[in-house]
Amino acid sequence: MASSGDTLTSSEYISHHLTNLTFGYHEGTDSWRFVDTSNGIMPADFGFWAIHVDTMLWSIGLGLFFIWLFKKVASTATSGVPGSVQNFVESIVEFVDDNVNSIFHYKNALIAPLALTIFIWIFLMNLMDLVPVDWVPFIAQEMGVGYMKMVPTTDPNATLGMAFSVFFLIVYYSIKQKGVGGFLAELSFMPLGKWFLPFNLFLEVVGLLAKPISLALRLFGNMYAGEMIFILIAMLPFWAQWLLSVPWALFHILVITLQAFIFMVLTIVYLAMAHDDH
Amino acid sequence: MNINLTIIGQAISFAIFVMICMKYVWPPITGALAERKKKIADGLDAADRAQRDLELAQEKAMSDMRKSKEEAAAVIEQANKRANQIVDEAKEKAREEANRLITAAKAEIDQEANRAKETLRAEVATLVVAGAEKILEASVDANAHAQLVEKLAAEL
Q1: CA dihedral B7, B10, B16, B19 (to 10 degrees)
Q2: Where are the domains of chain A?
Q3: Does the distance separating the beta carbons of B30 and A93 come in below 8 Å?
Q4: Which band of pLDDT confidence, cut at 50, 70 and 90, is reported for residue A3?
Q5: Exactly one of A3, A59, A222, A245 is catalytic; which is it?
Q6: How many CB atoms lie within 10 A of CB A186?
Q7: Mind listing the pLDDT tens digit for each residue in A131-146?
Q8: How far apart are alpha carbons A172 and B13 in whole angstroms?
Q9: What average pLDDT does range A91-116 have in this prediction?
């Protein structure tokens, strides 16, 4: 611990590790600036019009890595004997394709690439959780950047951003498949028939909104908790850390894959439901 | 943990990545996969067909071989027969030729003998005349005594 040197209490250490590198207009000091908790400039002071630079940087960087790797394979993809990278990428693509085909039975060219992007991107973002918690913040601090939270999926903005994109697609395809009237009818007359319209509407709207919220918070909660435990383990004496961090990291390999998979499958399921005509 | 602009930034980058993936990543890879699947299916088909062809060819080769063996046996038999026939014919011809030669030789021998006899007779006549001349110690008129000499010679 104590990567920032000096005397750092446990709660300061934890909150430092959980603070995003926020940039925006700070009203208190009337200036555009980064967050600086030690000088009383808290992330909450920035309001909505601020941005988490670390989240954006890591998520876009990992997204670019995903696009770069897969595009490299795609541009050289042959139907002959595949190389090892092509083989690896192909097995992922086939895995995603199988999942999409088994859940989603309509013709839609968007769903499979969407599922692939979700799966790989979230997996890569989650994977950053396995980088020892002090390394990157320490390097950032040496370079003069006070905060660096390198796992974008432990930032609810990132998960909500993706979940609301999925939500937008759910609404878009519901209306496209069934028309505005059909979509509203689905919200109003199910499950109890037209005499319970307000109740139905309330139930269905809550159910609809619960989809992106649960999608986002499930991923965020899992990754945040995992990150938290890594931080807590990092506060043990250095010679005892491996006893806990190694099993937790091994277990976490399962969690990060599973969470990426769940996000992908639920997205496919929700979009399949949006295409279903009742 | 504040909700701020990051949520919009993340949604935008998400949309961009999905679009890139949809346009440039997904189609080539699945295309290559489908093509390979087709190639493998074709290859297996071709292998099956080749197997069938091989079996047919083997069967045909076997029957061809059997047939040619039979033919060869027939040819050999015929050849043997013909060879025997030729030998017999040759023997027959040789015998005839030999007979003919022998007959001719015999005839020639007879002829030679007759001719020798004639010559001998003529010479004997001459000798007789010569001998008679010696005996008589006088020349005998050959023409006058020709008849006598002839008679002598015929008696010899």
Answers
A1: -80
A2: 62-132+152-275
A3: yes
A4: very low
A5: A222
A6: 18
A7: 888 888 888 888 888 8
A8: 19
A9: 94
Q: Calculate the CA A260 to chain-centre distance.
A: 8
3-state helix, strand, coil in chain B (%, to 5): 90, 0, 10
**Confidence bin at A1 (pLDDT 50/70/90):** very low
In chain B, residues with a C-beta closer than 8 Å to the C-beta of A66 are 17
Which residue numbers of B have CB closer than 8 Å to A's CBs? 1-11, 13-15, 17-18, 20-22, 24-33, 35-36, 38-39
Minimum distance, in Å, between the CA of residue A76 and any CA atom of chain B:
9
The separation between CA A269 and the C-alpha centre of its own chain, rounded to angstroms, equals: 18
Q: How confident is the model at residue A277 (pLDDT cuts 50, 70, 90)?
A: confident
The share of chain A scoring above pLDDT 70, in percent, equals 97
Does A7 have pLDDT greater than 70? Answer: no
Residue A214 known to be catalytic: yes
Establish, for the pair of chains A and B, how many residue pairs have beta carbons separated by less than 8 Å: 136
The model scores a pTM over 0.80: no
Per-residue DSSP letters for A207-262?
A: HHHHHHHHHHHHHHHHHHHHHHHHHHHHTS-HHHHHHHHHHHHHHHHHHHHHHHHH
Q: Cβ separation of A24 and B22 shorter than 8 Å?
A: no
- Tell me which residue of A158, A116, A87 sits closest to B22, measured CA to CA: A116
Give me B32's structure tokens. 């290559």
Q: Using the beta-carbon criterion (under 8 Å), do B6 and A161 form an inter-chain contact? A: yes
Answer for the pair A53, A155: CB distance below 8 angstroms, yes or no: no
- The pLDDT tens digits for B46-92 are 999 999 999 999 999 999 999 999 999 999 999 999 999 999 999 99
